[in-house]
Design a protein that fits this description.
Elements: H1 3-32, H2 38-72
């Protein structure tokens, strides 16, 4: 695997973990409140969302980057 593809994969894994950690925590807290089974419910939400988020980031981030460059009139890198 070339360094750029390896970077993109690692970036997707790290970005997915950070985003999913925060978003599932907040949404689970909003929906359930701080109940006895909060951590179990949050962990289940995290695992499901992480499995969905990482491939989405991996495949959608390049598209989002290109769209953003077009909106700002920047050359493609």
């Amino acid at each position: 695997m070339n360094p750029q593809k390896k970077f993109h994969l690692v970036f997707s894994l790290v970005m997915g973990a950070m985003m999913v950690f925060l978003m599932t925590f907040v949404i689970t807290l909003v929906n359930l409140g701080w109940v006895d089974h909060f951590l179990a419910a949050w962990a289940k939400s995290f695992l499901i969302a992480y499995v969905v988020a990482v491939p989405m980031i991996y495949f959608v981030a390049p598209v989002a980057r290109k769209i953003s460059q077009q909106i700002l009139g920047m050359p493609s890198v």
